[in-house]
Amino acid sequence: MKKSKSNLVKYFAFLLMIFLVPTLAIAGEVSIGDKMSEFIGSMGFAQLEGNWLCLVMILVSFVLLYLAIVKKFEPLLLLPIAFGMLLTNLPGAGLYHPELFAEGHVHWKDFADANNVGLLDYLYLGVKLGIYPCLIFLGVGSMTDFGPLLANPKSFLLGAAAQVAIFATFFGALALGFTYEQAGSIGIIGGADGPTAIYLTSKLAPELLGPIAVAAYSYMALVPVIQPPIMKALTTEKERQIVMKQLRKVSKTEKIIFPILVTAIIALLLPAAAPLVGCLMLGNLLRESGVTERLSKTVQNELMNICTIFLGISVGATATASSFLNPQTLGILVLGVTAFALGSASGVLFAKFMNLFSKNKINPLIGSAGVSAVPMAARVSQNVGQEANPSNFLLMHAMGPNVAGVIGSTVAAGVLLAFLG
Amino acid sequence: MMLLSIDWGFAGVVCLAGIGTTFIILIGLIYFIRLLSWAVGLKDKQQTKETKVETKVVEKTSTNEHPTSHEQAAIALAMHLYFDAHDEEPHVITIEEVEKRYSPWSSKIYNMRNFTK
Question: Residue B104 carries which DSSP code?
């Protein structure tokens, strides 16, 4: 027993010599102390000193993660956004470099130095070049049924009315001291359309991308909280009980021709809206044509999910302490919720206005679905309608203004881009 | 002072142009959809008319040349009784066997949830 113990000690001493002798040999040339202090200095913890705003941003990302996971606020997007925010604010990680995209341009020359480019810089290129929002719109189009809109084309008016909020908020943002480009990007939150908001902001005011994306998606998740009080305040019990005429059946030919001609008409009238409308309608054509089932399924699932991950994480990455923790963000959050409320209100009021002239009465509750937020806003109309009249089914009627709102917000974004871009 | 520095005229133009364009395009789409549904409806009507004519022709010829359904039933019964014919089936169930080639990519043996033992 004693013998085996002494052998073990010998072996250990031998191994120690093998490692120690070379170390001691070069000790004269390289200082171990320096190397150790350099290593410790490179740690994120060491870089936190004098950088406490990063800690605040990390806490903000934790709050957003909590909202996404526990409260289920648009988790598919809020979770990647929050995680992107966490990654970008970890000191020393070097995943995102805002200077590569300074002054609204991509500094391609700096991308040549791979040591100074992080993973999120590469992913952010998809946002900056307007790729992800358009690909997401491809998926949205593929999941959208324009049937209710085709059955009741008047729904377009409600979709257009809800967009008034975008321009009202544009005025509000200007009054608060934002530039024209920033005001346009903030106004588009009123369209309640995430990809459109991100697309327009990446073109007009990329420095506000983080706060605007967070505001847009948070408010979209809060549609069931924000809209019902406004809808109830602007309508009477009798109006909420209105039962609408059943929608006609829409033929397959109409559904196929619609996306093709809408793309042509809108792109010719407003070329700036062509990328978004084109992708939306291509997705819809893949669905309705009935001959590209595989493509339609891919666009709805795999492509959409991959783009959502990339979009979320790279938009979250733009929310650095310097760009997020300032009074502007507070202004954006206040203006965003105002835009949302105004959009809902203008839709409801316009539906009431339409009732003055039309024979077939419209339930004004479907007007609030004119803000995009598909299909959440339509569901809210259905729920509030059923509170007043349990035998009333407004969902399909509300889907008309809802999808009209998507087209309306892309048109509004196109106008803003044409004037301010 | 800040409010005075803003060109409110330009902002107003952007707003009016924005709201105007959105409404004009979407109202234009309303009329376009109506035109589309009218055109499709017209085509459907024409098709239904043609099929109606076809069925009428078929009905007419059928009444003239072929026996009625009652007559057909009587003929069938008479033939059945005369020939004493039954449809004999072999009572063999045939299920086509589809051979699948083995591939490790679709194998159920290999998956990510296997625990090491």
Answer: T
Q: Rounded CA gap, A365 and A115, in Å?
A: 55
- Nearest chain A residue to B19 by CA: give it: A164
Q: Is B48 on the interface with A (CB under 8 A)?
A: no
Exposure of A243 by Cβ count < 10 A (0-12 exposed, 13-18 middle, 19+ buried)?
middle
The amino acid at residue A327 is: P
Are the Cβ atoms of B33 and A266 closer than 8 angstroms? no
CA distance A396 to chain B (A): 18
Nearest residue, CB atoms, A408 vs list B26, B30, B44: B26
Q: Give dist(CA B85, CA B79) in Å, integer.
A: 8
A-chain residues near B29 (CB < 8 A): 153, 156, 262, 265, 407
pLDDT tens per residue across all 117 residues of chain B:
666 777 888 989 999 999 999 999 999 999 999 998 888 887 777 777 776 666 655 555 555 557 788 888 888 888 887 877 666 677 777 777 667 777 777 777 666 666 665
Asked whether the beta carbons of A213 and A73 are under 8 A apart, the reply is: no
**3-state SS string for chain A:** CHHHHHHHHHHHHHHHHHHHHHHHHHHCCCCHHHHHHHHHHHCHHHHCCCCHHHHHHHHHHHHHHHHHHCCCCCHHHHHHHHHHHHHHCCCCCCCCCHHHHHHHCCCHHHHHCHHHCCHHHHHHHHHHCCCHHHHHHHHHHHHCCCHHHHHCCCHHHHHHHHCHHHHHHHHHHHHCCCCHHHHHHHHHHHHCCHHHHHHHHHHHCHHHHHHHHHHHHHHHHCHHHHHHHHHHHHCCHHHHCCCCCCCCCCCHHHHHHHHHHHHHHHHHHCHHHHHHHHHHHHHHHHHHHCCCHHHHHHHHHHHHHHHHHHHHHHHHHCCCHHHHCCHHHHHHHHHHHHHHHHHHHHHHHHHHHHHCCCCCCCCHHHHHHHCCCCCHHHHHHHHHHHHHCCCCCCHHHHHHHHHHHHHHHHHHHHHHHHHHC
- The interface pTM score, or ipTM, of the predicted complex is 0.80
Confirm if A379 and A410 have CB atoms less than 8 A apart.
no
> Block means of pLDDT (10 residues each) for chain A, length 421 residues?
69 74 63 81 78 88 92 86 92 87 84 86 91 93 92 92 92 90 93 90 89 86 89 93 88 93 93 93 94 93 93 89 86 91 94 90 92 87 91 91 93 93 81
Tell me the two tokens of residue B29.
């789409």
SS3 B102: coil
Q: What is the reported pLDDT for B60? A: 53
Give the pLDDT score at B46: 75
Question: CA of B26: which chain A residue's CA is closest?
Answer: A156
